[in-house]
């Protein structure tokens, strides 16, 4: 699971077609040494809030139906309801800020592997094909956190079928993953990742178009201090 895969869950599929290219998708995972942790998924459209506010007043734009605030909240509520039924997932919460156009979902997991199939299942319910496969694991003995990512080959093909004006929406759009730990990080396998000053957080930020086109891989193996 990653936030890029949560387009539908965080209403990405509704609003992206009518936005400018300024939006950010953020995935945050906070791991505890006992293997439990928290997830916060955010889509931040605040850089385009003026345009989004104008678009929300219309019925459709460029052939895309513009959702009402009620429809957006309904879709978010359905995603939350699904998460609440998922094994190992508790304390599911969501929020929407229609002044700045920011949506979040957060929850606690018993084991990081609990989140591996969530995205695939949610997208399947909405009849949306996944653009990548992503899985997580945490070895409590070796204190190693791993994220395995692999783009689906058809994602680039489908993206290239889009009209130029629709592709342009993704220019400048970013995906950020942030992983926080209780213990200091000794090493990371992904050269694009950055370590915080405290050595207890790892961040990786990239352009969404690079992910779609397979120009960057966000897999990472993070070794913590024992």
Automatic annotation (TrEMBL):
It comes from the Bacteria. This is Lipoprotein.
């Amino acid at each position: 699971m990653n936030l890029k895969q949560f387009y539908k869950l965080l209403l990405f599929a509704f609003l992206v077609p009518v936005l400018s290219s300024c939006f950010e998708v953020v995935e945050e995972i906070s791991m505890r040494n006992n293997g439990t942790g928290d997830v916060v998924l955010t889509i931040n459209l605040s850089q385009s809030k003026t345009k989004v506010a104008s678009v929300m007043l219309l019925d459709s734009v460029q052939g895309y139906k513009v959702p009402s605030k009620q429809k957006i909240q309904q879709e978010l509520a359905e995603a939350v309801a699904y998460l609440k039924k998922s094994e190992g997932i508790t304390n599911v919460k969501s929020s929407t800020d229609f002044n700045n156009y920011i949506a979040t979902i957060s929850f606690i997991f018993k084991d990081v592997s609990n989140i591996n199939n969530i995205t695939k299942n949610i997208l399947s319910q909405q009849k949306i094909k996944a653009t990548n496969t992503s899985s997580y694991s945490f070895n409590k003995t070796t204190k190693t956190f791993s994220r395995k990512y692999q783009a689906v080959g058809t994602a680039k093909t489908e993206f290239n079928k889009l009209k130029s004006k629709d592709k342009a929406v993704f220019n400048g759009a970013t995906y950020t993953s942030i992983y926080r730990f209780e213990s200091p990080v000794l090493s990371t396998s992904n050269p694009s990742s950055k370590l915080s000053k405290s050595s207890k957080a790892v961040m990786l930020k990239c352009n969404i178009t690079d992910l779609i086109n397979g120009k960057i891989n966000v897999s990472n193996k993070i070794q913590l201090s024992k």
